[in-house]
């Protein structure tokens, strides 16, 4: 049986760094049923390891992050199997969005359809300048759905409409200007830019980071007043561990 998901876990002083690569390079790392199943199983296994402080998701090779969903598979769907398949795509994104630790999308090359949705579901997107982004589903007779619902908030209403209605591509600089990409770099600096984001995350408290990620999701799914109250509750919850006292004490007593 082919292995479509490559993983690597690196032990560091402030927590583990996990890397996950989707390896379906012959088809530009597109998502089919087997890839999605293995991705889900791998994400569940990684999510159980609470010593993981940051997860990096990328595409194997240098041509594609994820080239969308497998069109050969989708061409044979019926209404029932279409519902099942697109739900599995949603769960792929959901597992990144609700992973216990911050998730970095390391975007190399094509980031299309389901790939752009997965990137949007990650916490930080780092992209090389040769990356390209598109939601081309309408060009093959289907709408952009599931985590495409995140795009209006990220890109703005009008650009999101433009992309899902025309299927046109935007380059990495356009995606950076629009807010989908947070870290833009030369292709040869992609690993270095990703490493910078990793190091910045590792400087934070792990308990605080888990609470912060949950709170970011809560902010997006609730009204402002509710989000503020959730923040008050989250702040108090942080003090259920020794992390604030320990980290603040280290800061106060740092060498001067």
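Q: What amino acid sequence fits the structure above?
A:
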């Amino acid at each position: 049986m082919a292995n479509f998901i490559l993983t690597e876990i690196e032990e560091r002083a402030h927590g583990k760094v996990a890397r996950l690569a989707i390896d379906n390079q012959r088809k530009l790392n597109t998502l089919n049923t087997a890839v999605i199943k293995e991705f889900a199983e791998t994400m569940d296994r990684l999510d159980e390891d609470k010593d993981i402080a940051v997860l990096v998701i990328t595409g194997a090779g240098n041509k594609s992050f994820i080239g969308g969903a497998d069109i050969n598979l989708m061409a044979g769907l019926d209404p029932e199997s279409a519902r099942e398949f697109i739900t599995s795509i949603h769960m792929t994104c959901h597992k990144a969005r609700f992973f216990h630790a911050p998730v970095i999308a390391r975007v190399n090359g094509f980031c299309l359809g389901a790939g752009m949705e997965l990137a949007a579901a990650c916490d930080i997107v780092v992209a090389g300048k040769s990356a390209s982004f598109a939601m081309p589903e309408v060009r093959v007779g289907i709408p952009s759905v599931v985590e495409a619902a995140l795009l209006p908030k990220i890109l703005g209403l009008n650009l999101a409409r433009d992309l899902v209605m025309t299927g046109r591509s935007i380059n990495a600089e356009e995606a950076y200007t629009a807010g989908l990409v947070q870290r833009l770099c030369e292709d040869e600096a992609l690993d270095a830019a990703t490493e910078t984001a990793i190091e910045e995350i590792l400087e934070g408290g792990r308990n605080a980071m888990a609470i912060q990620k949950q709170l970011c999701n809560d902010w997006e799914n609730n009204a402002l007043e509710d989000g503020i109250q959730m923040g008050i509750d989250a702040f108090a919850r942080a003090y259920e561990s020794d992390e604030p006292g320990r980290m603040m004490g280290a800061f106060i007593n740092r060498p001067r």
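Q: And what stands out in the fold?
A: The first helix runs from residue 33 to 48.
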